[in-house]
Specification:
The protein has 1 helix and 6 strands, in the order αββββββ. By secondary structure, the protein is mainly beta. The longest helix has 9 residues.
């Protein structure tokens, strides 16, 4: 399996969506926000969590199952 296919299956799924750009991250169908401050965000899903590190994080929009965050992202980690 190619690296792109693995990333695609991880970030775009029928159960959730994680969209990254230079200054924004958009997450749909997360389970819970475990930690959030201006340098680190931990978001849980049913089978894994993601840890986002960087700086100047700001919540731009938050609904029941959607969140949009702006900032400078340096790393996104998947924890199973």
């Amino acid at each position: 399996m190619k690296v792109y296919d693995r990333l695609k299956s991880c970030f775009i799924n029928k159960d959730y969506c994680i969209s990254l750009s230079n200054n924004y991250i958009y997450i749909i169908n997360y389970k819970e926000i475990l930690e959030i401050d201006d340098k680190k965000i931990i978001v849980s899903f049913d089978n894994f969590s993601i840890v986002i590190t960087g700086y100047n994080f700001k919540i731009k929009r938050k609904l029941n199952i959607e969140i949009e965050i702006s900032g400078q992202f340096s790393k996104v980690e998947i924890i199973k």
